[in-house]
Structures are given as C-alpha cells and as structure tokens.
Write a structure and sequence with these properties.
mainly alpha, 10 helices, 2 strands
Length: 237
C-alpha cells in the first residue's frame, strides 16, 4: 500500500534583521560603517563574510584618514575622497547589514513561563479530541513495537512485548502475544471469552506455537468477527 506523503509543518517565520545593522552606519555617517560586517563575520565565520569585514574596515580607515588630512589648496582632493569613502561606507554598510544580516541567526532571549494567575482554569478540554489522541498514540506504539520485534525478537521478549500480564516498563500500546500470553491476558487484552481463550491455549500447546496472526482463525477456529476486532492488538513472538 502506498504511504501518503508526510505532512509538512508551517514554514518557519522569516527572521527580522536587527535595526542597528543599518542604523549604526547611517547615524555615524559611515565612521562605523564597518561594524555590521564585523559582527556578521564574527557570527558566521565564513571566508566571504570575513573578507567583507576586512574590506569595510580598511575602507572606513582610509576614509577617516583622508578626511582628516589638511591642505593649503582650495581643492583638497584627499579630504573630498575621504568624505566620498565615508559616504559610501554609510550607504554600503547599511545595505550590507540589511541584506547579509537577514541570513544570520540572531539569538533571542528565551521566553519565561509565568505561573497562571490564581483562579485561572485554562481553555476547555475536548474529551473527544483526548480520546482520539489516546487511540492514535496507542496505535503508533503498537507499530513501533512490531517493528522492534521484527528486527530483534529477543529484545522484544526481554522487554515483555505482548505480555500485559507481566510487570514491565516498555509500553507496546496494548499488544498481546498469542504464543506466550496466558488465558486471562487473552481475555483482558483481546476480549475473548474464557472458553475461547482456553481453546486457543490448548491449540497453541498442541501445535508448539502459532506462526502467523491469522492462525487464530485457520487453526484455532476463532470466529472471523472476533478476529477482525482484535487483529490490530495481536503479535506473534
């Protein structure tokens, strides 16, 4: 039978870039335009982000030095070039912070669970939803236990899968091993009548054990309606 494709969860919310990544270059007029690139490089530690950080830092340094140079000429080309570099850092640093910052995981402070206020009852619980969830959980546990038993039968026996009559810690979802469970476990776990459970035990003893689940019908004579009701909880170990 073709299994349906797994349901995909909702897409992860898109991260918001911290505002300071563009604000620092703008409000410092490019003097600290290298800071977003340096922070991103420190968090990502990739070659490309490190090269960007070095490039921004060198450009900021050159622009700051050229801007501070004094000249007697009316046209101070060095100062003008430094101002241009700082302006480029202001724009480039802000743009790089916004674009590259969106690809960085920015850790947020964990939410603190506060105790509910006195008298708070909470949302109403739907008993039908709880019942359905319980049945589906038990079905999943039975499927996991069957898979484990097929892969490692000895481990399944050590875990006492299918033996609700014995103390154990492994939850198999209510499976009953028709090759080892006593008559009272067949009655409680599968809903068989005491007479039918005793007959199944007698047939099992004569055969030396069942090999298939449907041996209950073919060899032990369990009626089809009864078998259809309990087949989901049967396992053969």
């Amino acid at each position: 039978m073709v299994q349906p494709p797994p349901m995909m969860g909702p897409p992860a919310p898109r991260q918001r870039t911290p505002a300071w990544l563009w604000a620092v270059p703008v409000f410092t007029c490019g003097l600290l335009g290298f800071l977003p690139a340096v922070v991103i490089a420190a968090k990502c530690r990739t070659r490309s982000t490190i090269l960007w950080a070095v490039g921004f830092a060198l450009t900021s340094l050159v622009g700051f030095l050229l801007t501070g140079m004094q000249s007697s000429n009316a046209d101070n080309l060095a100062s003008d070039l430094g101002a241009f570099l700082l302006l480029a850092m202001m724009v480039g640093g802000a743009c790089y912070g916004v674009i590259a910052g969106a690809k960085v995981h920015w850790a947020t402070a964990p939410l603190v669970d506060l105790p509910p206020p006195p008298g708070y009852v909470g949302p109403p619980v739907d008993p039908n939803a709880q019942a359905i969830a319980g049945v589906m959980a038990a079905r999943q546990k039975r499927a996991e236990a069957r898979t484990l038993a097929q892969r490692d039968p000895h481990l399944a026996r050590d875990l006492r899968i299918g033996r609700p009559d014995l103390p154990r810690h492994y939850d198999d979802g209510g499976l009953v091993d028709i090759n080892s469970a006593p008559a009272d476990a067949l009655v409680r776990g599968l809903g068989l009548t005491p007479a039918l459970a005793t007959h199944v035990i007698d047939v099992r003893r004569q055969l030396g054990g069942f090999e298939r689940v449907d041996d209950l019908v073919n060899l032990a004579g369990v009626p089809d309606p009864v078998y259809d009701q309990v087949v989901e909880r049967i396992i053969v170990l």
